[in-house]
Amino acid sequence: MAISTTAAHSTRSSSVHWYLLLAGWAAMYGPTYWDLAGTIWRTDEQFHGAIFLVVIAWLIWDKRLPAVATPPTPCPLAGGLLFGFGLLLYVIGRSQDILIFEVGSQIPVLAGALLFLHGANALRALWFPTLYFVFMVPLPGVLVDAMTGPLKQWVSIIAENLLHAAGYPVARNGVTLSIGQYQLLVADACSGLNSMFSLSALGLLYMYLMPRKSWLHNGIMLASILPIAFAANIVRVIVLILITYHLGDEAGQGFLHGTAGMVLIIVALILIIALDSFSQFVLDRRRLGSSVNTTAGIAAGSSASNEVPEGRTPIADGSALSASATGISNRRNLAFGLMLFIAVVSAIALRPKAISVSAQPNLELLIPKQFGEWTIDQSIIPVLPNPGSQQQLAETYDQTVNRTYINGTGKTIMLSVAYGSRQNQKLKAHRQEVCYAAQGFEIRNLKHVTARISDVNIVVTHMLAVAKQREEPVTYWFTVGNRVVQSHLQRLVAQLQYGLAGTIPDGILVRISSLDSNEQAAYQDHVKFMNEMLEFMPLEGRVRFVGDADRQVRPTQTNDQE
Q1: If I label 277, which of 297, 353, 381, 501 is the partner at 20 to 30 A Cα–Cα?
Q2: What's the domain range around 487?
Q3: What backbone torsions phi and psi does residue 23 show, to the nearest 5 degrees?
Q4: What is the rounded distance in angstroms from the CA atom of residue 339 to the CA atom of residue 348?
Q5: Closest by Cα among 24, 213, 177 to 106
Q6: In Å, how far are 207, 446, 548 from 416, measured between CA atoms?
Q7: Could you tell me if 327 and 398 lie in one domain?
Q8: What are the tens digits of pLDDT across the range 48-63?
Q9: Contacts made by residues 455-463, CB under 8 angstroms, sequence distance 24+
Q10: Are 397 and 510 in a shared domain?
C-alpha cells in the first residue's frame, strides 16, 4: 500500500513538472501565436501558418506515448547547446521583432528539450512534427525577392502559351496578360512562391501519413512536390483568366478573393494522390517478376518484424524507473520550465523603448521645391515606392514625397522619398526592383556601385526598369538610422545594433529615376541632381539622406545581381 501511494505521488509530481514545462512554452510562444494571428496569418500568403500549428499539435499529441515510452537516456551536452541556441534566437527575435528568429526558434527549443530530458529516442519519435515547425516560419525576404520575379515570368509565359494553344485571344507583355478587352497583371501573390511553400508542407504531410517502404517511391514523391505545386498554381491563374474573360472582371476578382486558394489545394491534392497511386501501381507491377518464394520470405519477415513492437510493454518499461531517476527527471523538467519563463522576461527587458533615433523629419519642408535650375514639373508622376495596397503603404511609411523636377534644358528627374519611423522586420522599406517588377516592369542591369553624394561614399543600387517603350534608369538606396545599407544582411545587422542598444531605428528610402535610353549618362545625372539638392539642405537633413560618414555600414562593392 505504501509503495502504491509513493508511486502515485511520484506520478502526480512528474505531471506537475511537465505542466510547468508546457506553461513555459505557452508563456514563450502564446504571445507569438497571438501576434501572428493578428498580422501575417490574416494574409493570403501566410494564412497556412495557423493550420500548420494545429497539425503540429495533433502530431505531437499522437506521438506523445512513443516519445516517452522508453527509459530516459538524456544527451545533456547536445540537448543543452541546442536548447540554449533556441532560447537565444527567441530572445533576439521576440525583442527585436525578427519573426524568422522568433518563430524559427521553436525547432531548436523543442529538439534541445527532447534531447536533454529524454534523449535521442524521444527526438526520433517526434522528428517530423519538430521539423514541421519550419513551415510556420515566414519566408526570408532575400528568398522572396530572388524567386518572385522569375516565378511570375514563368507563370505568365506558360499561361499565355496554353491559352493560345486553346484558341484564346491572349497576348503577353512582361507579366501582364491581355485577353479580349481585359488586362491582368500577374501579381506577387500569383507567382506561386507561398503556395509552393504551403503545398510542399501538404505533400510532406501526405508522405508521412501514407508511408511507403520503397525508397524509389518516396524519392519520386519528394521530387514531385514542387513541380506539382507550381503546376497547381498555373491552373489557378488560368482559371482566373478564363473566369475574367467569360464572366467579366468583377467575377474574376470575386474568384480571386473567394475560391482561388481552394482550387489550388484541390488541384494539388488530386495530382499528389494520382501520382502516388500511379507510382505504387507501377512499382507493384515491377515486383510481380520476383519469385513466389522470395515474396513469401519477405512477407514472413515483414510480419515477424511487425509483431515485435506490438509485444512491447512501454508502460512496464516506464514503471521500472527508480524513484531517484524520476526525481532527476522532474528536476530537469522544472529547470527547463523556469528557463522558458526567464527567456520571456529577457525578451521583454531587451525590447527597444525609443521609437526613433531622432526627431522625425518633415519631408515636405526638408526637400526643397526649387534649387539651382531645378523646379517642380507636374506633367510626370513617379511610380510610388510601394505598389501594394494603400493600407500597406500607410502602415510601412509615415511620410512619402513624390516629385518630378525639370531644369532649363528640359531634362526631368523623378524623385521619390519615403520615411518610416519604425524599421524592423515587420515594417520595412521595400526593394525597388521588387516594386517595379510587381507592376509589370522588366528589371535589367541590376548592380550595386559606390557613389559620392554630399562628400560621403555610399553604396547605391542602379537598375533599368523597362515596360514597352518606357526605359527608366533608377538609382536608389536605404538609410537605417544614420547608416546607408543595401543588402538584407546589412539591414538586419543595423537593426540589431540599434535595437540591442534600446532603439527602434527609423529609415528613409531615396529613389531617383528618369526616362532616358542612355543608362550611364542617366546615373551620372542622378548623382549630380542629388548633390545639388542636398546643398540646399541643412546638415541634419543631409545626414538623414546619406547617413553619418563616421557611422556608415561599409558594404562591399559588387556588380552582381543580389
Answers
A1: 297
A2: 363-551
A3: -65, -40
A4: 14
A5: 24
A6: 49, 19, 21
A7: no
A8: 788 889 999 999 988 8
A9: 455/549, 456/546, 456/547, 456/549, 456/552, 457/552, 458/484, 458/546, 458/547, 458/552, 459/484, 459/486, 459/555, 459/557, 460/486, 461/432, 461/433, 461/486, 462/519, 462/523, 463/432, 463/433, 463/436
A10: yes
Q: Known catalytic residues?
A: 190, 236
337 shares its domain with 434: no
Residue 184, burial from CB neighbour count under 10 angstroms (0-12, 13-18, 19+):
buried
Do 383 and 438 fall within a single domain? yes
| Cβ contacts of 347 within 8 Å, gap of 6 or more | 90, 91, 94, 95
Q: What's the grid cell of residue 27? A: 508563456
What angle, 0 to 180 degrees and rounded to 10, lies between the N-to-C axes of helices 141-165 and 488-500? 140
Under the banding of pLDDT at 50, 70 and 90, the label for residue 551 is very low
Domain total for the chain? Answer: 2
Q: What is the pLDDT of residues 170-199, one digit of tens each?
A: 888 777 788 877 777 776 566 567 777 877
Tens digits of residue pLDDT in 411-462 = 999 998 888 877 665 545 567 887 787 677 888 899 999 998 888 888 899 9
Q: Do 390 and 512 share a structural domain?
A: yes
User: How far is residue 396's CA from residue 435's CA, in Å, rounded to a whole number?
Assistant: 14
Nearest to 428 by CA among 104, 88, 138: 138
Phi, psi of 172 (to 5 degrees): -130, 140
Grid cell 533556441 in the structure block, residue? 86
Residue 533 lies in a domain: yes
Q: Are 511 and 476 in contact (CB under 8 A)?
A: yes
Query: Does residue 331 fall inside a structural domain?
Result: yes
265 with 393, same domain: the answer is: no
Mapped onto helix, strand or coil, the DSSP state of residue 463 is strand
Measured in whole angstroms, the distance separating CA 207 from the mean position of its chain's CA atoms is 24
- Residue ranges with strand state E in 91-201: 170-173, 176-179, 182-185
| 533 and 424 part of one domain | yes
Name the 3-class secondary structure at 394. helix
